From TrEMBL:
Domain of life: Bacteria
Organism placement in taxonomy: Bacteria, Bacillati, Actinomycetota, Actinomycetes, Mycobacteriales
Native species: Nocardia caishijiensis
NCBIfam families documented for this protein: MMSDH
Keyword Mitochondrion assigned: no
EC number: 1.2.1.27
Protein name (record): methylmalonate-semialdehyde dehydrogenase (CoA acylating)
Entries under InterPro entries matching the protein: Ald_DH/histidinol_DH, Ald_DH_C, Ald_DH_CS_CYS, Ald_DH_N, Aldehyde_DH_dom, MeMal-semiAld_DH
Keyword Isomerase: no
Pfam families: Aldedh
Keywords for the protein's UniProt record, in alphabetical order: NAD, Oxidoreductase
Domain Aldehyde dehydrogenase positions: 22-479
Length: 499
């Protein structure tokens, strides 16, 4: 049976009225499992109007009360994490264990947001001038929006909404139309946790919905995560319309492997980081850079052995290392990049194309591919494939390896594997990438630090979650006060100074 999905506006499920629908597929079977309404401009505007009406009610909750709503939400999500993970996995195609990780990493930012009474504290300077005190406060922006990708349908909406809501904003989420059921359930749970109706809204849609958000004056900030061309478009359009924007894009994450690294450990880690979630992670390692020919030969041999043992299966198969891609277009894209690599002259050590999973022959499966002797001029090195493909680029020395990561147009994550503290420190200091792992393959920062890529992986000044998120979702007001007991001593016609 094909489920009919809705929007979630003003605390209720609302059927779509545009007459335009997207299809949500079951990646394990290739069958349509749900229809999702794609909102018209009128529908989005109605949601924004609702959010604008609800926001002052929510902003009037004191910070401690807002924190209590977040705490209750944590409890509710944790109580049903198994069924949420199953729902997420069934639409996305990642394994159920990985789907739980997706939810858990989102909840960690809600845990951070529980600290909002402390995080919102302003500054105070007593007697900044004679009888004059100065203080600052952080106030919510109003209505803010999140536009999120398919690959983390719980984590990224929560990264955006958690801090935004805790700061007293109302939120309009436009999730990916490929896997919208988990965001819709999260909206119900926010309501159950005590969030007033209209404060968190989910409106499904495509370009028309997004463009309406970008144009509407009532939306004060836009947080986006997705591919780089759309990130750039959203950043430029939102800021041209006077909004704050933070837009995170694609990636090509390198792992530099020094000759002194424990290569068995490195190979184990790279297999998970490169092929986990079928490579559909913005922090996936897609480029391994062994330093020196001997390191490269040994690493490729160890990776090859492990890639052959990978178990690709249905997302609900507990024995699967990774499941299907989210859609047929993903399979076509990955297959075509593998062919491009072959045509460019890279050495295809393991070919993952044409994989058939027994009993799930129509699913969007593709096996793991491994390329050796990839060079920086090749498209399979330069472009984001977003699938289970790892490319090995051999570097002659450390400086050449560092240059590769530095000169790549993306700068999301990077890792170095070494036992040499001097090299590791030098690398962390000099590399032109936003998130660095030292013997850690997927260095997604913990919730109370910030997450954000450099170069064409991120547009905007402030990162996601951590202290930056509080700055992004609030505006600072600074008050300078004097009471009559301290008479003004200045000439009213001269600009005041703090003498
Ligand atoms: P996408 O860019 O196709 O879609 C992201 C969002 O933008 C969706 O909500 C989609 O509906 C909307 N959208 C798509 N086309 C649009 C258009 N023309 N105009 C306006 N809105 C549009 O990305 P995706 O395929 O859902 O996600 C995968 C991409 O996201 C990869 O490139 C991955 O690297 C990136 N990603 C980046 C991060 C990060 O933090 N840097 C995290 C996760 C994913």
């Amino acid at each position: 049976m094909v489920r009919e999905l809705t929007h979630f506006i003003d605390g209720q499920h609302v059927s779509g009225t545009s007459g335009v629908f997207g299809e949500v597929f079951d990646p394990n079977t290739g069958q349509v499992q749900a229809r999702v309404p794609l909102a018209s401009a009128d529908e989005i505007e109605a949601a924004i109007a609702n959010a604008a009406a609800a926001q002052p009610v929510w902003a009037a909750f004191n910070p401690q009360k807002r924190a209590r709503v977040m705490m209750k939400f944590l409890t509710l999500v944790n109580e049903e994490i198994d069924s949420l993970a199953a729902l997420l996995s069934a639409e996305h195609g990642k394994t159920i264990a990985d789907a739980k990780g997706d939810i858990q990493r989102g909840l960690e930012v809600i845990e951070f947001a529980v600290g909002i009474p402390h995080l919102l504290k302003g500054e105070y300077t007593e007697s900044a001038g004679t009888g004059i005190d100065v203080y600052s406060m952080r106030q919510p922006l109003g209505v803010v929006a999140g536009i999120t990708p398919f690959n983390f349908p719980a984590m990224i909406p929560l990264w955006k909404a958690g801090p935004a809501l805790a700061c007293g904003n109302a939120f309009v989420l436009k999730p990916s139309e490929r896997d919208p059921s988990v965001p819709l359930r999260l909206a119900e749970l926010f309501l159950e946790a005590g969030l007033p109706p209209g404060v968190f809204n989910v409106v499904n849609g495509g370009k028309e919905a997004v463009d309406t958000i970008l144009r509407d004056d009532r939306i004060k900030a836009v947080g986006f995560v997705g591919s780089t061309p759309i990130a750039q478009y959203i950043y430029e359009t939102a800021t041209a319309n006077g909004k704050r924007a933070q837009c995170f894009g694609g990636a090509k994450n390198h792992a530099i492997v020094m000759p002194d690294a424990d290569l068995d450990d490195v190979a184990d880690q790279l297999i998970g980081a490169g092929y986990g979630s079928a490579g559909e992670r913005c922090m996936a390692i897609s480029v391994a850079v062994p330093v020196g020919q001997e390191t490269a030969d040994r690493l490729v041999a160890k990776l090859t052995e492990r890639v052959h043992k990978l178990n690709v299966g249905r997302s609900d198969d507990p024995g699967a290392d990774f499941g299907p891609l989210v859609g047929r277009d993903g399979v076509d894209r990955v297959n075509s990049y593998v062919q491009i690599g072959v045509d460019e002259g890279a050495e295809l050590v393991v070919d993952g194309r044409g994989l058939v999973v027994e009993g799930a022959e129509d699913g969007y499966f593709v096996g793991a591919s491994l390329f050796d002797n990839v060079t920086p001029d090749m498209r399979i090195y330069q472009e984001e494939i977003f699938g289970p493909v790892v490319t090995v680029v051999r570097a002659g020395d450390y400086e050449q390896a560092l240059r590769l990561a530095d000169e790549h147009e993306y700068g999301n994550g990077v890792a170095i594997f070494t036992r040499d503290g001097d090299i590791a420190r030098d690398f962390a200091t000099r590399v032109q990438v936003g998130m660095v792992g030292i013997n850690v393959p997927i260095p997604v920062p913990i919730a109370y630090y910030t997450f954000g890529g450099w170069k064409r992986s991120g547009f905007g000044d402030l990162n996601q979650h951590g202290p930056d998120s509080i700055r992004f979702y609030t505006k600072t007001k600074t008050v300078t006060q004097r009471w009559p007991a301290a008479p003004a001593k200045t000439n009213a016609f001269v600009i005041p100074t703090m003498d």
